[in-house]
Amino acid sequence: MQTMTSQRSRGRADAELVYRLEGSLADLYPIGLFSEGLRFHNDFSADIVEGPFKGGRIFGLDQFMVRPDGVGVIVAHEVVEGADTRVAFDIRGYVLPPDGLEMPPLEVLASPGFEFPDLDFRVLATALMRTAGPRFDHLNRTVVVNEGTVNLGTGRLDIEARSL
């Protein structure tokens, strides 16, 4: 019987690779300034370049928001197509500005013509998954950690997802 301590000490080195993606964001469409931050609508698509879904694709919608402190909040619904199955992901997490980068006020971000800098922002998120594919049934009862980068200036995504 494993104890909580031994489970925690496992770390993520042996966590199952679910996918590594390389892709891009579509244009960020500002919805408007709200009390909690600046909301955007964003579609994205990426190729899965490693893991059991290699050769597949991932796409979805992110209802992205930048808070007044400059931290981005991810609320995304994604679909993975590959390995003869589809998997739905419900993603929640953060986009963190590079150390030392002072984000402009939200009013500046919302102004027409604003462009994010050509810099990598850190992505840290969790996901719950649902699939009817028997080969990946075990993913229906795990949490996936997404880590990587997004360049909000160019739209470039590079994310690795591992199950816990």
Defining key terms:
single chain; mainly beta; Porin; 2 helices; 10 strands; 7% helix; disordered N terminus
Descriptive account of the structure:
Residues 1-11 have low confidence and may be disordered. The protein has helices spanning 4-9, 106-110, and strands at 17-25, 29-34, 37-50, 57-62, 65-66, 72-82, 85-96, 120-130, 143-151, 156-163. The chain has 2 helices and 10 strands; from the N terminus they run αβββββββαβββ. It is mainly beta. The chain is elongated, with a radius of gyration of 17 Å. The longest helix has 6 residues, at 4-9. A hairpin with a 4-residue loop joins strand 9 (143-151) and strand 10. Strands 1, 2, 3, 4, 5, 6, 7, 8, 9 and 10 form a 10-stranded antiparallel sheet that branches. It has a single domain (19-163), classed as Porin (Beta Barrel).
Radius of gyration of CA atoms, rounded to a whole number: 17 Å
Please tell me the total number of domains: 1
Mean pLDDT: 90
DSSP summary, beta strand count? 10
Order of helices and strands: HEEEEEEEHEEE
Helical residue percent band: under 10%
Taking pLDDT < 50 over at least 5 consecutive residues as the criterion, the unreliable ranges are 1-11
Q: What class do helices, strands and sheet pairing give?
A: mainly beta
Separate helix tally: 2
End-to-end Cα distance, whole Å, is: 18 Å
CATH-defined topology: Porin
Q: What's the CATH architecture?
A: Beta Barrel
Question: How many strands, what sense, and barrel or not for the largest sheet?
Answer: 10 strands, antiparallel
Broad CATH class: Mainly Beta
